[in-house]
Amino acid sequence: MPSLHDAARGRILFGGDYNPEQWPEEVWADDVRLMEEAGVNSVTVGVFSWAMIEPRPGAREFGWLDRLLDLLAAHGIGAVLATPTSSPPPWMGALHPETLPRTEDGALVNYGSRQHFCPSSPVYRRYAAALTEDLAARYADHPALTVWHINNEYCTHCWCDETAGHFRRWLGSRYTTLDALNDAWGTAFWSQRYDTWAEILPPRRAQYMRNPAQELDFKRFTSDALMECYTAERDIVARHTPHIPVTTNFMPLWSGQDAWAWAEQEDIVSVDVYPDPTDPHGGQYNAMLADMTRSQARGPWMVMEQAAGPVNWRDVNHPKPAGLNRLWSLQAVARGADALCYFQWRQSRQGAEKFHSGMLSHAGEEGRTFREVRRIGAELALIGAEVSGTEVTADVAVLHDWDAWWSSTQQGRPSSLVSYTELVQTWHRGLWESGISTEFARPGGDLSAYRMVLVPQLQLLGDAAVDNLVAYVRGGGTLVCGFFTGVVDTDDRIRPGGMDARLRELFGIRTVHEWWPLDAGATVGCDGFDGTLWSEELEPDGSAETVAAYRGGELDGLPAVLRKGTAWYVSTLPGPEALRGLLGRVAADAGVRPVLEGLPPGVEAVRRGALLFLLNHGRSPAAVELPGRYVDLLTGEAADGGVELERYGVAVLGDVRA
Amino acid sequence: MPSLHDAARGRILFGGDYNPEQWPEEVWADDVRLMEEAGVNSVTVGVFSWAMIEPRPGAREFGWLDRLLDLLAAHGIGAVLATPTSSPPPWMGALHPETLPRTEDGALVNYGSRQHFCPSSPVYRRYAAALTEDLAARYADHPALTVWHINNEYCTHCWCDETAGHFRRWLGSRYTTLDALNDAWGTAFWSQRYDTWAEILPPRRAQYMRNPAQELDFKRFTSDALMECYTAERDIVARHTPHIPVTTNFMPLWSGQDAWAWAEQEDIVSVDVYPDPTDPHGGQYNAMLADMTRSQARGPWMVMEQAAGPVNWRDVNHPKPAGLNRLWSLQAVARGADALCYFQWRQSRQGAEKFHSGMLSHAGEEGRTFREVRRIGAELALIGAEVSGTEVTADVAVLHDWDAWWSSTQQGRPSSLVSYTELVQTWHRGLWESGISTEFARPGGDLSAYRMVLVPQLQLLGDAAVDNLVAYVRGGGTLVCGFFTGVVDTDDRIRPGGMDARLRELFGIRTVHEWWPLDAGATVGCDGFDGTLWSEELEPDGSAETVAAYRGGELDGLPAVLRKGTAWYVSTLPGPEALRGLLGRVAADAGVRPVLEGLPPGVEAVRRGALLFLLNHGRSPAAVELPGRYVDLLTGEAADGGVELERYGVAVLGDVRA
Amino acid sequence: MPSLHDAARGRILFGGDYNPEQWPEEVWADDVRLMEEAGVNSVTVGVFSWAMIEPRPGAREFGWLDRLLDLLAAHGIGAVLATPTSSPPPWMGALHPETLPRTEDGALVNYGSRQHFCPSSPVYRRYAAALTEDLAARYADHPALTVWHINNEYCTHCWCDETAGHFRRWLGSRYTTLDALNDAWGTAFWSQRYDTWAEILPPRRAQYMRNPAQELDFKRFTSDALMECYTAERDIVARHTPHIPVTTNFMPLWSGQDAWAWAEQEDIVSVDVYPDPTDPHGGQYNAMLADMTRSQARGPWMVMEQAAGPVNWRDVNHPKPAGLNRLWSLQAVARGADALCYFQWRQSRQGAEKFHSGMLSHAGEEGRTFREVRRIGAELALIGAEVSGTEVTADVAVLHDWDAWWSSTQQGRPSSLVSYTELVQTWHRGLWESGISTEFARPGGDLSAYRMVLVPQLQLLGDAAVDNLVAYVRGGGTLVCGFFTGVVDTDDRIRPGGMDARLRELFGIRTVHEWWPLDAGATVGCDGFDGTLWSEELEPDGSAETVAAYRGGELDGLPAVLRKGTAWYVSTLPGPEALRGLLGRVAADAGVRPVLEGLPPGVEAVRRGALLFLLNHGRSPAAVELPGRYVDLLTGEAADGGVELERYGVAVLGDVRA
Fold first, then answer.
1. Predicted pLDDT at C421
2. I need a surface site. Which of A282, A399, C9, C423 has the fewest CB within 10 A?
3. What is the distance between the alpha carbons of residues C326 and C324, in angstroms, rounded to a whole number?
4. A384: three-class secondary structure by DSSP
5. CA–CA separation, B505 vs A274, rounded Å?
6. How far is CA A61 from the centre of its chain?
7. Closest residue to A193, CB basis, from B89, B114, B354
8. Hey, of B348, B362, B369, which one would you mutate to test binding to chain A, going by the most A CBs within 10 A of its CB?
9. Which residue ranges of B are tagged as binding site for Zn(2+)?
10. Is the CB of residue C621 less than 8 Å from the CB of residue C594?
11. Given a contact as 3+ CB pairs under 8 Å, which chains touch C?
């Protein structure tokens, strides 16, 4: 199977989305000149070109794209060629309104923006397949072609009648019989029993709360329906070019696609990464996305999009201070990226994203933004051969699962303040600040390689996953599990006792009397720390140690943190320092060590292959002591016993071979 | 006429909604075993069983219900049997989309939740009547049957075309001629004059503010249209079982149903009661709902639903601390409830309310929740014979009216910060904290039995109601009236002068120059207290005493509180302490006494029949001095001269007969 | 051409909207009696009378209007006669649903409020024209008729299919070819290229951000479509009565109508003015609206609506304290108004605005509100002859432009916290607090008469406007320009470099590296002041002086305020005091003087013709020193060397002729 390695060939891919159709062709020459100056070796083309290629139904205008790819090839720049199917031309919506999505309320989602297609529409799929076929046939042998990029940021949800029929077929295949569906959905509640398949609808606007199992299945279905769109196009291009790797770009921490399942269908896993430059935890967020994507990719991965400066979709869009783009770029490489791309090469002058930065901003080649891009390109060229294709390893896994996520976002739960993604980020932060390397894993996956496994929260856990966790602990693994885990099964049905009995036994809990969610800003005293967000009224069974008890309030004296052997249960959310302390202590017991001991605050150390990356996320310089002799590949200078990092500074250290 | 007494028969009914269709039949035996353990003597069945009974149009599946009722009868548990018409099966919406409601925007409200029926739909009504007919015929003589429960929490609003026609017929009957309607609605304003009946619509989405009289009539109509659904089903069951009392459960302080009018159509008045366990005024809120429902019932009433633990529809859903369920349950009994039921018996494992507590929670029979339920059941059995059927009396009435409420919630009023229900609760709180027993009454009702009448606010007052208030004062009654009262007539037409002339005369007001609403958080100085929310620029006519004047600001020196004989007008909202002080002083002048003098803060005393209930709403123990010798029916212990109440503790004291 | 002068004839028009159709005819006599008492000489009739005049399609009921106009004429009260086309009768929507607007979501906007017409509907336009024709023919020679008032507060947006066709015709006329449209809209972005005109839609609900140029054109189109409705009716009445001036009333600072363009189509420019009585900057806001409307009118203008007391559409609607109505009324006259009218004469008892005040409030003729109205009427009669028709002059212009405004409100911009209207008001406030007279002007207009020109912000500037500003400075003018100006061209296309090159040259800016918007509440240190809302990373070209630099943070040392000769660029928003200081200093350098030196805070001085108005916006009395001998026209008393103003007091001073 082709992989990112086939495109990178010992380099780090560097570049971005390139939409030259927005510019007169005389600008193109300037583009490639500046790309070469910046060390760009890969650009993504065609993402939004459907209307240029097929200006009217069935037409094909490939001339401009021929000239573009020839130009790229002539300059040795590889093309990540997109199927332009994420944004159908206006004629499609005008001619075939049934290809347009409808909201839960039945309102039509018009063209005039992007991603205005119903993933279940056969008409849309037919047009998309025909265009993909012709595109693949035409460029299969083009020397510029290095990667196929299918569609873009799949994210469209639809509640139309076509979708309803498709949803019913998907349900038919999942449940076979209506009785099984009625049982799984618990339709005895509120008189929702379905008597015929035809009665079943997507969860549309209703008078009050909707059926949570129906909502869960609709989320599963939508991820699958979008994936069908993806695999249909992937199969076409793969038929033409079995040697060219295929990807589609994920949005970061996006609930609409089960990335674990999608990743299995990709040759390259790629993601779009947009931390807020003013987010004090932006560096950790960037690290988390890297760890997550690397885990999905099971190896090197691709940053398909990041921003060289500000984005334009926040309320207030902050630029990146000098050095931050470089810091976060090299951080992604440190954590396994072999391709580092931006949206987009040249900032648009028109359209909805003209205030979204580009590598070449409105300020042009003299702009600070481009100067920094040029530096990054040069540095990637310096380190590419030593980095590309190498691995990052970790002793710790954080469990992450879409079913559990979807289940946790439903209406009518104990606390709407609990955010699955915030919990994942908070727990990951505890490890990151302790300097511990981390991966992500699926609850049902093979965990035997890890010394420690964390579960920030998995409200939904299937039987196999529960057994997997129990077996992991029985096999000597250390498990730290956050609150409200194992509450429902795969049908979103509450486990007897409110928590799976096997897990209760694992943690030494006899009875879960009540969940006590906390109000916004409220805390609950515990031995040695304050809990936030949640607490639980647990009755232990005597087999576990109460590591910390609640103090004061209604839960006074009851266990907040339980430990039974190497299984830990944390029934509240400790503050950041307390959580870091707890995880650090458990990790140490489990034999997990940080990458480098004694780092100054804000400095991150990552080992990739034979290299040691040091990244200073602080706004002040930092001195790092080193346990040996190194050379900094970026400067060529020796770093014996220590190195000085400037604000946002980075060192890429190789061992000095004797 | 049948009454709650026929079902209670000297006991307090205790139980809850029971939805065994959600469970395998083998669980039922366990249910009745635990019910017996908990002293459950009444369960509500069938509320959401339409799809079980009529799985497809016209089908009837009564077997399971036969078995269920037989089982209940065999264990001496009474059945409150519901017509399951609040949640039609999916087949109805699929087959007859015109039975589904439409929003103001014209969007369809789908099935997939509950209460998805247009109350004006003849198709829905026909199906509902047919099912009710068969249900009543089948179980008329069943020994388990004790109460009919029609539908559930009627709350559906609809703006569809069917509703439009129904609304026009309702208007035709109210106004007879279009001229009368045009006059009542003031359609000369903004060119809204209707030339034919067919032009009239429900108040749908519009460009700007809508006609307030049309909105008011639409609220009246919707309450009536829902009531037609109720009475149609009630008439059917009553024909079959004239001896069985009928009820439908109100939502607490719900604007959609004029509970005074509905209560006249019920044999039993029942209500669903869900104070927030963390609300510092939860106990007073519970007391207010009890007083309100008892007043509507004109005697003993029924808690149809309360929660043994958390609900699931708040942002953060707090459990009840140990003792609170018992405290609020006994409080309801103290204030006249002869039936104390929960939603629901066994907590659901599936569906939208699986995180809503049950009497038997996910933690099961060993859970704290069930243990407390068992205690309450036992205690109700202890006191039932002495309590059931007895009366609660009060010298004070708070006036409460749906027309006034509806009028007060319209667009384009002086201040959107003024909340009718908050005013009602705030004034009731003033009495409750003073330990004064209270009832609620209608503005046009017989007030002669009361020493004091309070009007927190009645923006709309019809002529008869105005005359009634004037006559009440002329007859020696004490009236305390809040701001912005008597402003509009029954057509929502402003009274000349901005306040009814008879009321101005009653309070000694010559001219209402302006209303001065206050911004959020702002206060206005008055003699001896600070006013909030509102103030008024009043010119007195010299016949009244200015009890307190405004001090500072634009109204400096003008009257804030006016008194003319026994008629008081309060033109602002005093802070809680000041309002309590004012009401206490006026009450004392009117000869109204608290139930018990010298109570510690947080302790409530209520007399019901011959018993004295003491309820400690505080989280610390409290000692209460008693003016005599009592025995606590719950413990059998003597309480001579005083009693000690634990946190959330309750004593039910009977006189020691010599 | 007729003008306001023809209606005013040496007086100040005083009166309000008069809707006697809401009252029995016996009330009319009382109305005119009180009008005469209050000095009312002009009333606006017919605004919402469509359903009274045309109760069913084609009918005409003019009798009541004949009687009304005769009554007014008999009492010497002029009639501003409205075409009642802003609120079609219910029969129109019922009979012709296609005349009703649709929202972006496709939802129907129903009748039952007002302004429920699609401006593109030919059916609506046909009915409106026919009625206007008959109205004009009937009353052309009526002695009461003084002004035509077309429609009312044009503000209806519509996204229906009829609108889509109209929008396409408008676009056809703007762009001629589809290629030109595709180029102007930048449809190469996101594959939005239109292949046929028929594909083009109004910007309806979409999946993500919409095309900003399409949105901009739709705003231009809607203003034009509404203006077509206006001019069609205007042309009809003008044909009947070429000597009678025509107006339509603007809403204040309303984005929906390009008031510059509309004003060119009016004989009288009129506006509705509703400052919040509790707004600490209400007086300045009132001044700004006056300056803006006077500038649009190029001379005397008309307050078509203001409120004698509270309005009813704010969350909390505050009355006007005693004296404030008079203060703001005389302020409008000082700033050029020759007509001062209210919505409305007699406060309604019914309908959506019954809590909106009237000149004759619910309290009636003894109410404080009417007493103050009477005083104002008397005073206007005193000063009318000396004031009416005279001019107000200014040395300073603030530039204001609808295209720039519309461009600034789009999705996906650097900061959603930036409000165009707040910036305009903040800069105007700097001048107002310095006592400097101000006008408003268009960016492309003749600026040669001004010593100083301010640009609070003009994100969009066409080429001619840019050249105009450059020429103004080259010609010796002083220009002070706020941030983010000159960023896009008339197609909303970013200027190369992110800011027009001519402007960069004008201000001495080499490169705009990045825009740095600030978070809410954040500030950025600058030499001598703190900046808010925005900052910019500018690289000067060495030709300009850095008047103030940023201090601290990422922009440390970079220019915050640049000056190159008489061209100033302010790249942040200084706090109010700093902005006032800066503008005052630049004004002084430019030879601009305040109306009167040494005024106490809160006292405003305005010269109109030969008169000096002094207005005390403070709540305490103020003493003003005067540079000469005056007489106060309101009191007839001498004001030698000084005058004492009471709270909210006003003096209208004439020179004492020797």
1. 98
2. C9
3. 5
4. helix
5. 69
6. 35
7. B89
8. B362
9. 118, 158, 160
10. no
11. A, B
CA distance C576 to chain B (A): 25
Helix, strand, coil percentages (3-state) for chain B, rounded to 5, are 35, 20, 40
* pLDDT single digits (tens) B101-131: 999 999 999 999 999 999 999 999 999 999 9
Whether the Cβ atoms of residue B418 and residue B517 lie closer than 8 Å to each other: yes
Identify the three-state secondary structure at position A227.
helix
What does pTM read for this prediction? 0.97
* Of C54, C162, C305, C372, catalytic: C305
Please, how many CA atoms are within 13 Å of residue C427, restricted to the half-sphere of its CB? 27
Tell me the pLDDT tens digit for each residue of C330-372. Answer: 999 999 999 999 999 999 999 999 999 999 999 999 999 999 9
Arithmetic mean of pLDDT over chain C: 97
Closest residue of chain C to B184, computed from CA coordinates: C350
Taking residue B21's Cβ as centre, other Cβ atoms within 10 Å add up to 20
Residue B266 annotated among the catalytic residues of the structure: no
Q: Is the pLDDT of residue B658 over 90?
A: no
A187-213 pLDDT tens trace: 999 999 999 999 999 999 999 999 999
Please spell the DSSP secondary structure of B375-418, one letter per residue. Answer: HHHHHHHHHHHHHTT-----SEEEE--HHHHHHHT-SS-SBTT-
List chain B residues with CB under 8 Å of C318.
516-517
Beta carbons within 10 angstroms of residue B552's beta carbon: 10
CA distance B447 to chain A (A): 40
pLDDT tens digits for C313-340? 999 999 999 999 999 999 999 999 999 9
Non-local (6+) Cβ contacts of C126 within 8 A are none
Res A658 pLDDT > 70: no
State the nearest Cα–Cα gap between A429 and chain C, in angstroms: 25
Structural domains present in chain B:
4-158+244-387 (3.20.20.80), 396-589 (3.40.50.880), 603-657 (2.60.40.1180)
For residue C635, report the phi and psi dihedrals to the nearest 5 degrees: -110, -15
- Of the candidates A77, A65, A404, the one whose C-alpha atom is nearest the C-alpha of residue A219 is A404
What residue ranges in A84-217 does DSSP mark as E strands? Answer: 145-150
Q: Complex ipTM above 0.95? A: yes
Residues of B in contact with C119 (CB under 8 A): none
**Residue B327 pLDDT > 60, yes or no?**
yes
What is the average pLDDT value for chain A, to the nearest integer?
97
Distance, in Å, from the CA atom of B9 to the CA atom of C592, rounded to the nearest integer, reads 93
Q: Which of C191, C192, C490 to mutate to test the interface with A (most CBs of A within 10 A)?
A: C191
**CA–CA dist B138, B125 (Å, integer):** 20
Per-residue pLDDT reduced to its tens digit, A243-260: 999 999 999 999 999 999
**Nearest residue to A429 via CA among A322, A563, A279:** A279
Contact C152, C86 (CB under 8 A): yes
Give the start-end residues of each E strand in C343-382. Answer: none
Report residue A204 as tokens.
């549309």
Question: Rounded to an integer, what distance in angstroms lies between the CA atom of residue A224 and that of residue A447?
Answer: 26
C195 vs A51: CB contact, 8 Å cut-off? Answer: yes
Residues in chain C with pLDDT values less than 50: 658
- Verify cis geometry, omega within 30 degrees of 0, for the bond prior to A344: yes
C629, C657 in Cβ contact below 8 A? no
Is C212 within 8 Å of chain A by CB?
A: yes
Gap between the terminal Cα atoms of chain C: 39
Report C:365-384 residues touching B (Cβ under 8 A): 366-369
Distances (CA, A) of C90 to B492, C18, C115: 21, 22, 12
List CB contacts (< 8 A) between A50 and chain C: 191
At which residue do the structure tokens 């599990």 appear? A481
In chain C, what is the greatest distance between 2 CA atoms, to the nearest angstrom? 78
